[in-house]
């Protein structure tokens, strides 16, 4: 019987354990990566999920059997794999992570040497085909009984201290003005892996840190490790208010995304952080290019243009954003989903560097986060991302497009349906990682219009059988 490989997505591998992701697939993946990229020296890591160690063992077996030398970093964050792959001579890096998905899911994120992403257009499809061929072979050895080729070996390494030092130096957070009261920050690691790196950073931070849920726990007792979910926000928001903090932070499971709360515990849409961080990078790199995704971008384009930068639209998804940034040599890239990419970080996304740069901006300006962003939020209100499960996504997208396109001033299909009108615009796209339609709407300083158009499109979706997700 042919193995179902629907866990292979547009730019990573993700699925339920053991239904879609298991030791057999992990071992075949290791062999395929070694042979297809090809990769002789590979660095591995895994997040807090309970299935991580077994998948690491199987993945290692496949790599070793194919002749690769393997270095594993143990439990870590995705962004710890990137600098290892970029700076230590590895041919590939593989992070075993389910990211922000439920605890019973897991997956793999792949990069080449230099932390260059592997997507369907740049090697992942070839790897999938090779995995299928390996799994189809009869009599393949069990994942636990690999034969190691002479000359290959397995070793452990930890680059966390080195990475923490780079974060401190690049952000300049240690050298912030020390006059007045230090900022008080609630940092909610959410029982993911963020606590591991935070422990390295804490002795050097000129802030009062209130740390919550620092211990990694693959059961995720707080729920799905995704602070974008409204039900996951209140605990962090309440802690900000109870502690009288100036800022709140929360991370997803593998901490490649960081989420912000202002001093009142208000959750800040990631969209508005893109403009703020673009401004920080353009101060250091005048005239630089900034890549943004297609979902919401009017605020970003205005900020970047006013500061003398060049805004560039990219396709949503970490592999696509990184590829576009490399082509453009962009200094920074941001997605509204809270992925932030930096040229000096091998064009990769970090969940630690953004908050450190925001703290620098707060310290320099003397303002709080609300004061820095409220005017931008009023000028460019947005709906936030709204997800719907639908029976026939392509047909429904076409129906929505045909309804609105005749009145649109601009249309593009870079990533889903993107239609602009005089005072509002929307993007409707299929998720690259989940069976969902994702809707984003924004307007020009008209919240009533935003709410009206959002409700109008949702009505069309729901009438066609869409279900809340």
Summarize the structure.
By secondary structure, the protein is an alpha/beta fold. It has four domains: 13-158, Alpha-D-Glucose-1,6-Bisphosphate, Chain A, domain 3 (3-Layer(aba) Sandwich), CATH 3.40.120.10; 183-268, Alpha-D-Glucose-1,6-Bisphosphate, Chain A, domain 3, CATH 3.40.120.10; 270-368, Alpha-D-Glucose-1,6-Bisphosphate, Chain A, domain 3, CATH 3.40.120; 386-468, TATA-Binding Protein (2-Layer Sandwich), CATH 3.30.310. It has helices at residues 23-36, 52-65, 78-87, 124-136, 160-171, 194-201, 234-243, 270-284, 298-306, 318-328, 353-365, 369-379, 393-404, 447-463, and strands spanning 13-16, 41-46, 69-75, 92-96, 105-112, 154-156, 184-188, 208-212, 247-251, 258-261, 267-268, 289-292, 310-313, 332-334, 340-342, 348-349, 386-389, 410-412, 417-420, 424-430, 437-443, 467-468.
Just name the CATH architecture of the largest domain. Answer: 3-Layer(aba) Sandwich
Overall mean pLDDT = 94
* Total domains: 4
Please provide the count of β strands.
22
How far apart are the first and last residues' alpha carbons, in Å?
A: 32 Å
Could you explain the architecture of this structure?
The structure is a single chain. This protein has 14 helices and 22 strands. The chain has 469 residues and is an alpha/beta fold. The chain folds into 4 domains: 13-158, Alpha-D-Glucose-1,6-Bisphosphate, Chain A, domain 3; 183-268, Alpha-D-Glucose-1,6-Bisphosphate, Chain A, domain 3 (3-Layer(aba) Sandwich), CATH 3.40.120.10; 270-368, Alpha-D-Glucose-1,6-Bisphosphate, subunit A, domain 3 (Alpha-D-Glucose-1,6-Bisphosphate, Chain A, domain 3); 386-468, Alpha-D-phosphohexomutase, C-terminal domain (TATA-Binding Protein, 2-Layer Sandwich). It has a 6-stranded mixed beta sheet with strand order 1-5-4-2-3-6, sandwiched between helices. Strands 18-19-20-21-17-22 form a 6-stranded antiparallel beta sheet, with helices on one face. Helix 1 packs across helix 4 (124-136). The longest helix has 17 residues, at 447-463. It is globular and about 60 Å long. Residues 141-147 have low confidence and may be disordered.
């Amino acid at each position: 019987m042919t193995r179902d490989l629907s866990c292979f997505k547009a730019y990573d591998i993700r699925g339920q354990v053991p239904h879609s992701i298991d030791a057999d697939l992990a071992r075949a993946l290791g062999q395929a990566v070694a042979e297809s990229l090809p990769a002789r020296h590979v660095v591995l890591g895994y997040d807090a999920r309970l299935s991580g160690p077994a998948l690491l063992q199987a993945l290692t077996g496949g790599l070793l059997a194919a002749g690769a030398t393997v270095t594993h970093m143990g439990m870590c964050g995705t962004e710890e794999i990137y600098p290892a792959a970029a700076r230590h001579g590895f041919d590939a890096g593989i992070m075993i992570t389910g990211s922000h998905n439920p605890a019973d899911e897991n997956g793999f994120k792949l990069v080449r040497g230099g932390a260059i992403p592997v997507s369907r257009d740049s090697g992942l499809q070839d790897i999938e085909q090779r995995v299928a061929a390996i799994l189809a072979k009869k009599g393949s050895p069990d994942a636990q009984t690999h034969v190691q080729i002479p000359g290959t070996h397995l070793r452990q390494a930890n680059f966390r201290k080195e990475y923490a030092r780079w974060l401190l130096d690049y952000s300049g957070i240690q050298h912030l003005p020390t006059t007045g009261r230090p900022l008080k920050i609630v940092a909610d690691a959410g029982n993911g892996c963020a606590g591991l790196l935070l422990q390295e950073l804490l002795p050097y931070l000129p802030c009062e840190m209130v740390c919550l849920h620092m211990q990694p726990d693959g059961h995720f007792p707080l729920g799905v490790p995704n602070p974008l979910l409204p039900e996951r926000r209140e605990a962090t928001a309440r802690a900000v208010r109870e502690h009288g903090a100036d800022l709140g932070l929360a991370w997803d499971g593998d901490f490649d995304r960081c989420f912000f709360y202002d001093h009142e515990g208000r959750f800040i849409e990631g969209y508005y952080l893109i403009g703020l961080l673009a401004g920080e990078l353009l101060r250091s790199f005048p005239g630089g290019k900034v890549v943004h995704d297609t979902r919401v971008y009017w605020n970003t384009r205005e900020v970047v243009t006013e500061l003398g930068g060049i805004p560039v639209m990219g396709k949503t998804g970490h592999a696509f954003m990184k590829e576009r940034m490399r082509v453009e040599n962009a200094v920074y890239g941001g997605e509204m989903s809270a992925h932030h990419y930096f040229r000096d970080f091998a064009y990769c996304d970090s969940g630690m560097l953004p908050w450190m740069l925001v703290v620098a901006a707060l310290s320099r300006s003397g303002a709080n986060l609300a004061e820095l962003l409220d005017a931008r939020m009023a000028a460019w209100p947005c709906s936030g991302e709204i997800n719907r499960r639908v029976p026939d996504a392509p047909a429904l997208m076409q129906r929505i497009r045909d309804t609105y396109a005749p009145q649109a001033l601009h249309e593009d299909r870079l990533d889903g349906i993107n239609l602009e009108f005089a005072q509002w615009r929307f993007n409707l796209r299929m998720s690259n990682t989940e069976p969902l339609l994702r809707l984003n709407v924004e307007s020009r300083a008209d919240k009533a219009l935003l709410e009206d158009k959002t409700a109008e499109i949702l009505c069309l979706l729901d009438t066609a059988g869409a279900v809340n997700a």
